[in-house]
Amino acid sequence: MEESSSSSTRSAAQTHKIKEKEPQKGGKKRTKAEEEEEEELFNFKSKSTEEEEEDEDLSDSEDSIFSGLEDSGSDEDDDDEELSDDGDEEGLDDGELKLEQTQQIGIETKKETEETGETEETEGGRTEKAKQEDEYVHDSSDEEDIRNTVGNVPMEWYRDFPHIGYNLDGKKIYKPIRNKDELDDFLDKMDNPDYWRTVPDKQTGSDVVLSDEQVQLVNRLQRGQFGDANFNEYEPQVEFFSRDVMLHPVTNRPADKRSFIPSLIEKEKVSKLVHAIKMGWIKPRRVEDDSRGRYYDLWANEDSSILARHKMHLPAPKIPLPGHQESYNPPTGVPRALWEQQDPCDRKLPFVPRKFSSLRQVPAFSRFIHERFERCLDLYLCPRQRKMRVNVNPEDLIPKLPKPKDLQPFPTTQSLVYRGHSGLVRSISVSPSGQWLASGSDDGSVRFWEVCSSRCLKTVQVGGAVKSVAWNPNPSVCLLAVALDSVVLILSPSLADRQVVLSSERLLSAPQEADANEGAGPVTWSETEGEELNHGIRLKIQHPKAVQQVSWHAKGDYVASVMPDHSSNLQVLIHQLSRRRSQNPFRKNKGLVQCVSFHPVRPYFFVGTQRSVRIYNLVKQEMTKKLQANSKWISQHGDHVICGSYDCRLSWFDLDLSTKPYKMLRHHKKAVRGVAYHRLYPLFASASDDGTVIVCHGTVYNDLLQNPLIVPVKVLRGHEITHDLGVLDVTFHPTQPWVFSSGADATIRLFT
Amino acid sequence: MGGLQKKKYERGSATNYITRNKARKKLQLSLPDFRRLCILKGIYPHEPKHKKKVNKGSTAPRTFYLLKDIRFLLHEPIVGKFREYKVFVRKLKKAYGKTEWSSVERLKENKPAYKLDHIIKERYPSFIDALRDIDDALCMCFLFSTFARTGKCHVQTIQLCRRLTVEWMNYVIASRALKKVFISIKGIYYQAEAMGQLITWLVPYQFSHDHPTDVDYRVMATFTEFYTTLLGFINFRLYHSLNLLYPPKVSWTLKQSQMKLSALSASLARVVSTAEEDEAELDQFPVDGEDMANMEAREKEQKQEEAQKKLFEGLKFFLNREVPRESLAFLIRCFGGEVSWDKSVCIGSTYEVKDETITHQIVDRPNIDKQYINRYYIQPQWVYDCVNAKIILPVEDYFLGVTLPPHLSPFVEEKDGDYVPPEKLKIMALQRGEKPAHEQEDEEEEEEEDEEEEEEEEEDDNEEEGDDGEEAEEKNLKKMEEQRSQGKSLSVKVTAGKVKVENPARLEQEEKAEEKRLAIMMMKKKEKYLYDKIMFGKKRKVREANKLAAKRKAHDDAEKSKKKARK
Question: What is the value of pTM for the model shown?
């Protein structure tokens, strides 16, 4: 405090001048802050009101000019001091005032600068001189109240003293005698109209009544306005540092040394850039290449030298063109529900067909971008393949076969139906003369029919389901072998000339030398008597197991029987009728035997197992061939063998060619039940569970180079399917191109 | 044994293919770059015949490229550009990171750019090749030209696409090349013939797209980049083939949405103002016999085409504001008509509604208040149907508020046996020059046709009936037999037999059918399979045609009954 006051000795004179006017106005005690405010006020007043004292104030203003310019630093210092003082003195009401003060100071300096502006304009040269002289003239410590010289000390310190400080002369200033109590105060408040503007001055301890102007000032400051009511806040700014070259420099400091010396750093930078350019790291600014979006005649010289890359390149397929269904107004209504029900992969159209009554109702297609995108993906992600489209006329695929008409004769129509059996007819056989037909059925009877009249001549009850019947192929005897259960019966139906009957009798009653061995074999031969004899049953051959099939040798003396069994080697037995002898030709079990058959002419014996057909030479007593086929039924003619099986197939073998089937025929839709070859005509027939008999013409040429030709010539239908069984057996007439078939519907049919 | 041991997968197909990843590594490219390269160069994967062999015994699913293709890519200059671009991006990022704005500027100025000209020349060695493959390019450009500035692609791309499509449309107008048009639910298909090539493109409806999230726009943008270049060169060549100036002088500064229309209404500047294009008429060669007939047919066709080109000549159209202006204006101008629209709707209108010479006003609303007497008020479908029918169709079916006849696809060419919608038959009759008979007559005819069809079907059925007859006979016999066996009174009766009339033609037919069936039985397994497949396809076709016909019939019947009910 002391130093500030000492430094402000000169300025004190200035403020004194102002204070001399002060008593005119108020002359009362004031707080420091108010005093300051007042000072400002007065300062302004001195400008606004006391214009006439210009020559006197000139120096004053000059002072302020330079203080504003050069000594703003010191000014600020003072301000700080003041601020801190204020903080010490009055904690409460100074909060708002602090701000106001600083603002005010700002304004002050501004005002001064304005003035300098004016003065500069008016008297440019003089200011410079004045600045040199009066650099420290202005000191802001003049704002202190000089009547009390205690300075900025808290007034509490004087609380216990009668005085409040010291005046300039070092005399004590006594506290005013305050005899006012609360009541007086209250009365004062009520009575005194100026009470609200009366403020106690802490420094002097007296009350000060604020003038109207002061009150206005306080109000303005409280509202955050400038203290001076006439002050224009929005005056145009004066640019000091402008681009205009002034007559006088703002500062006249001499230029630095470094502004004369070339910069090392800059040099370094430049050399770096030069190096980079030299090395090609920095490229010169590219010339704007506008040829990118420019089009020209690209195919001006179409030379074939640039060929497409290679032959493997395939152009992308085009998008298929839309059909009627894609129309916004398709010809027929659209089942939307069906489309939605289907799986996405099942849909024929990738979109929902819709119908709109007018074009304006058609909305945007929501999957448009998707479809385009998918096309893009197809173009660059999908492997392309050249698919050969088969463009065949289906008629060309059908093989050219000779017309069935040209291959006649063959059975074409159903001419006779033999009815009488009550169970399914498992087996039929035609007599070698072609006059009689024997049939064995599940109802336990064997019936003899006259072929031409479909008359049942004879019925023999054999007492068991008949599995197989076979007429003796020798025309000079008239015998029938019947297989049922585990018995093979030899019947003599006596349906022939007397001579034939006699010869067959002779055969049956031949010397029975084999009797001695009988006991040793597995088979027992026995003659029948009584009732059975009357029916024509002549012999009974008792087998150890169930007999499935019987088959005659062409000469009519031997008969083979089959007892399918996995585990034993006793599956096939050959019986010699004339000697009543049986023999087991095979020592080993070579699989489940399905059927056996003698070759009609040659000394061959066919054994069909599940896997293969074995052909044995009876003369040499050895196996000659093994045909690879799973067979159930065998029929043979000359060099050709046909096998039928339950897997719907019919295999046709040429014995001369190979052991593999020459042709596999898959004509039937269900299991093949029987196959038959015609003795004279090149015909063969197959019967199946699908109720059909298919007659094929198998032409075999004498010329060995020409392949045999198999032509199906007729599909014969007639049998009804009962219990999933259709035709069970088929056989040809020995001389005529007729075919007999027996079915599960208990009928036998003749097709001629 | 001499010689080295042969190693697996060192020869044969394994050496001809390369997996995608290996190819990528060989080219030293990232996957997006590789994808871009493949798109631009038109390289696609190949499916080897023996996948396991090529895959070196593994069955893992892999994409294979031909090794030749990849070797071919190795020499592509664009690959270098891709790498440069990668470096550029890296540098730019670094500069941004260091906030070195000057170097950012400098880098941006030197941004590497590539041109696709050589690739186009390489992929399409001749102009016709390029023209053949332009379908996708057009579709894509038309799609992109409808995009708004949504940030899905560069604005420049959109603008370029707009420009190119407008140029293309202008070419089509100038050359009168448009052949067919079809309003589908997806958009409008156009088909034009340029230099003997049929070019089809699809334009979406003028709605803003809701951009799907599961679409990679980068792929689309790469394709578009290629397509725009291609289309530009093609446009150039096409314009020059017509002696037109390219690029056409169209004020591009106009607002984008209006650009197309204004461009369409403006005519193009010709390089050489030819007074009249001399059409290359077919020279008359002395020919005889069949060739003569061929020639005549060709000449007739040409005449027809000429007539189609001048389909709308002399007609003056006015488009109401609710119709698709751009499409219709394009169509009408393609066929020589004059077209205008309301001035307030869009720029480029040439005359007002009040013009007395207007012949057709195209309106797509149920009714209109103020109607002029000397013009037809028709729905827009009329224009499209006329173009497809190649004749001016009667306007009665297309008046306001009338239920429109179905809009048929002109791309469907019915072979015999296919279902032909009756509307198409009608149009075909009109094309032949027959006068439209009364509708009732038509219907009668249809019915007759139907009956014929039914008869045919019956014939098929008859075969089976024959069998049935036999069966019935047999049953009779059986009954009799049973009666006999039961020992009942044998009512011996001689009934007069019926004379079975045998139709010799029928018999022959049956015989033939039987023969065929037998022959089919003898087919080899492979051939049988193929035959069955073909026959299945044929039968399905017939079934579908029948189904459609039945549906149509049901529909017509329903309509008829409705009409009657109304009466």
Answer: 0.61
CA dist., res. B410 & res. A321, Å (int): 10
Residue A303 in tokens: 């030379």
CB A35 within 8 A of CB A145: yes
Nearest to B212 among A327, A353, A369 (CB): A369
CB B73 within 8 A of CB B80: no
* Nearest CB neighbour to A327, from listed B106, B408, B525: B408
Say how far apart CA B114 and CA B121 lie, in whole Å.
15
Model pLDDT for residues A157-172, shown as the tens digit of each residue: 888 888 888 888 888 8
The closest of A548, A546, A585, A591 to A567, measured between CA atoms, is A591
Residues paired with residue A685 on neighbouring β-strands, in sequence order: A676, A695
Running along chain A, 752 residues long, what does each successive block of 10 average in pLDDT?
Answer: 40 42 42 45 42 41 41 40 41 42 45 44 44 52 63 82 83 78 86 86 80 91 87 84 79 86 93 92 74 79 59 80 87 67 74 84 89 92 83 80 80 84 86 84 86 83 84 81 84 76 75 52 74 75 84 83 80 81 78 81 81 82 78 65 80 77 82 82 85 83 74 84 85 85 86 84
Report the distance separating Cα A264 and Cα A271, nearest Å: 10
Residue type at position B156: Q
Give A94's contacts (C-beta < 8 A, 6+ positions apart): A33, A86, A87
Residue B467: list chain A partners with CB under 8 A. 717
Which residue of chain B comes nearest to A293, CA vs CA? B229
- CA torsion A409-A415-A419-A425 (nearest 10°) is 30
E-strand spans in A633-708?
A: 633-637, 640-644, 650-654, 663-665, 672-677, 683-688, 692-699
Please tell me whether residue B151 adopts helix, strand or coil conformation: coil
Radius of gyration of chain B (CA): 34
> Which amino acid, A430?
V
Q: Is A323 on the interface with B (CB under 8 A)?
A: yes
Beta strand ranges found along B49-186 (DSSP E)? 64-66, 178-183
Q: Which two tokens stand for residue B452?
A: 């014929």
CB atoms within 10 A of CB B512: 11
Sheet holding B360-362, edge to edge: B338-341, B316-319, B360-362, B376-378
Number of residues in chain B: 567
| A-chain residues near B123 (CB < 8 A) | 308
Long-range Cβ pairs for the range A659-667 (8 Å, 24+): A659/A625, A659/A626, A659/A627, A659/A628, A660/A627, A660/A628, A661/A627, A661/A628, A661/A629, A662/A708, A663/A710, A665/A696, A665/A710, A665/A712, A665/B521, A665/B522, A666/B525, A667/A694, A667/A696, A667/A712, A667/B521
* Alpha carbon separation from B256 to B90, B166, B184, B259, B349 (Å, rounded): 36, 11, 26, 5, 17
Contact criterion met (CB < 8 Å) for A329 and B365: no
Would an 8 Å CB–CB cutoff place A301 in contact with chain B? no
In this complex, the residue of A310, A322, A715 whose CB is nearest that of residue B411 is: A322
